[in-house]
Write a structure and sequence with these properties.
Length: 126
């Protein structure tokens, strides 16, 4: 019985981790994108006008992205695309070049906020 309970707990944990839809401290998308969290920050990936936009929040408050750098890698339909991310607003980073975020795409953002260590955030686009 103990083994069954342990296996059930592991299965639930793995299922939540694989889904890529971490609740990010209960956060809900504010901009219609996909949310994930890393290092106690919330990141929302949104496709907008053919580009990718990432919004950064710290416990519900906008986090300044001035001086931030990053890259976004998207895997979709067996193809890999990569673009540079650059600050574009109070708490946003936007792809420098157009990039497609088709349904089912997987994305990994590597972001370095000013004065901080790099953080890697994974997304599964709906």
């Amino acid at each position: 019985m103990k083994k069954l309970i342990a296996l059930s707990a592991i299965a639930i944990s793995v299922s939540m981790a694989i889904s890529g839809q971490a609740l990010a401290h209960g956060a809900k998308p504010k901009h219609g994108g996909v949310i994930n969290s890393a290092r106690d920050l919330t990141f929302e990936l949104v496709g907008k006008d053919g580009k990718a936009v990432i919004y950064v929040d710290d416990h519900g408050a906008n986090l300044a992205t001035a001086g931030a750098t990053g890259t976004l890698t998207v895997l979709s339909g067996g193809k890999k695309s990569e673009t540079v991310l650059q600050p574009s607003g109070a708490n946003t980073l936007t792809s420098k070049t157009p990039i497609q975020l088709a349904g089912g795409a997987k994305a990994v953002a590597s972001i370095t906020l000013a004065g901080k260590e790099a953080v890697s955030v994974r997304f599964s686009h709906k």
